[in-house]
Amino acid sequence: MTGFSGMKVGQFKMTVKSMSDGAGVLKDAKSRFTKNFSELGVDTASLNELGRIGGEIEGMLPEARRRLDLGVALERRKDPWLKNTDATTYVAEPPLSVADARAKGKELADRLNALNSSDGASAEEIHRIAEELKAYQDDPEVLAAFFTGVQPPNRLTSLPNLMYACGSKTATQDLEVFSKALGVAISAENLTTPGMDKVKQALTTSGGVPGTNWDKLALLQYGKFPTDFVKLAAKNLALDDFAKDPDQDFRGGFASSRAYNGAVSEDNVALALNMLGKDDVAARDVLWNMNPGDYRKTFTQLLNYSRMRDDVGDALGLAIEAGGGVHTEEPGKHSPGASQFAFEWILAAGVKGKDVNWSLKDSNANLASSYKHELTTGARIDDARSRESGMGAPPDFSTIPGLTPSFYLNPKDTYNFIKTFADHEQATQSFDQEMGAFRHDLLVIAAKTDAEALKTGKDPHNFQRAAGALGDLAGLEYAAIVKVRGDQDEFDAQMRSLMKDVVTVGLIDRIPMSGAVKTFGWEATKFMVGKGLDKWAGGDENNTRVGKFDNATDAWVAAQRYEMASILLEAGYPADPPFPQELTKDGKPLSVDEMTKDKDKLKTFNDWMDKTDMDGDGSTFDQKVEEGNDAVTSKEPETVAKEYEK
């Protein structure tokens, strides 16, 4: 009878440890108390029960550890970063006995050992072995028995080249199976199959020439390996030699890589970096120690080497994302190690600007999104403009509620880093979507703190400063895009098309994501800063404030103004008189979409806004909206960016 047993890997791991510790405690207690009782002439028969219970627990441990390894392998396949070990994992029952698992692994190894020719027949047999091994992809004992059984040892470490020599048409998919299986076997902590230490040593020891090392690195491309193993392999097989002399030719798979149709780089440096791209700790440790204590030198070497090699650039990007904690840490809560790594990369890459390899640009945008707190803070022109970039805050630098940077860039370094991805349309779109949601959330937090402070005193104007910081970043991004793309008219035409759609088809059709109004806010800010559209189109007050919305630009600015008001209302900022009921739906203000397509509603909104500004003391609702709009659409970032280009 077959079935499944469920476990939460993190909890079960603690259970197994408790069982092991408890068994040891009971056995030690029996031994110690037996001696003490004997010295006192007390009968020791009752102490045998302690030994019996300890022995029973010890007897249960092998099966418990086997199931734990099975569970970890399954969990790692679902979640390579192991971010959620509290999820329930289901292990098939009953698992193979250890003896049967070893027998199966050895059988497959013997078949691989028996191959004595490099031809199509051998390629087909390797494929069959890979397919059968895949059926046991989550069973570390089967996989360990297979890898320890492959003889001679160089049969395993040269397997990628063997598949090339055989003319395999399934080399890529077969290599993926072998690599992932290796990851499971090497990661298992409770193996009973002996010999994996020798396998690890063979795979992490340099063969002295790029070709031999390429085979080993290729075999490690798809698996998820322990951090210490990743560090050894990346250092010994490529990156230590690279740090000593980056001008060498590291293309160890010049011929063999052809069997893998571009899926496996010919370059050993790319393969080593790709491994680091799956392990944040390994990425930081290895790149830090290539030139001990000097990230900037290492990053510059790698940027130069990757300049004309897309495969190296792509792998370097993955390593940078990993080291910066993009996949393992939350924005605004980055660890000191990840923050230092990201800070040094931002400065090193910024020196290259738009000249970084094209395949790096999406990773730079991903890093920028993860460090949006730091880039928003770094863009600030209102405070300590001449500051140096550093890990600590500049003296007397003001804080903004909701911004929790782990380092402090200056505006120039912020601008230079944005240039590293500003000419990549998809990369900037990804960054803009992240910033759209962040802009909304940061403004809400700032407005809430102002509303709370207003209850007992004066408005501290956090909303204005948050809007200013966001406007500065949007302005620097706009300036960077115009600079590196070299075609301002084309970019402006795209933005004007989006503006027109605000009035016609609506936002949702052009911004296909939930919370489109949040993305609109960033797009609006970026373009309005660039074009100086912080005010209504020219004309008298009657025309510009309450009357005409025929012009697409007017509607765009009106939408920006309404969106600012919506954020203040969401934050609970006081308004007198209350917001008009006819402009609400389900108790919330109508969407920007609904408002911009209805002139009558916009007029009602603007009439209400004017009524909230009867005393004009700077803290009324209307003044608060204008305060935010003026701050978020300043032309100063564009002026500053031009100075940086001199």
Question: What would you say this structure looks like, in words?
Answer:
With 646 residues, the protein is mainly alpha-helical. The protein folds into three domains: 3-93; 98-352, Leucine-rich Repeat Variant, CATH 1.25.10; 430-644, no CATH class. It contains 29 helices and four strands. It has a two-stranded antiparallel sheet with strand order 1-2. The longest helix is centred in the first third of the chain and has 32 residues, at 9-40. Residues 623-646 have a biased composition (Basic and acidic residues). Residues 609-646 are annotated as: Disordered.
List keywords for this structure.
646 residues, two-stranded antiparallel sheet, two-stranded antiparallel ribbon, 2% strand, globular
Instruction: Give me the side-by-side strand order of the main sheet.
Output: 1-2
- CATH fold title of the largest domain: Leucine-rich Repeat Variant
The SS-based structural class is mainly alpha
The Rg value, from CA coordinates, equals: 31 Å
Number of domains: 3
Biggest sheet descriptor = 2 strands, antiparallel
Could you tell me the mean pLDDT? 85
CATH class label of the largest domain: Mainly Alpha
So, CATH architecture of the largest domain?
Alpha Horseshoe
Low-pLDDT sequence parts: 505-516, 533-550
Tertiary shape:
globular
Beta-strand residue percentage: under 5%
Number of E-type strands: 4
In whole angstroms, the N-to-C terminal distance is 77 Å
Number of helices: 29
Q: Can you give the helix content as a percent range?
A: 55-70%
Region (Disordered): 609-646
Biased composition (Basic and acidic residues): 623-646
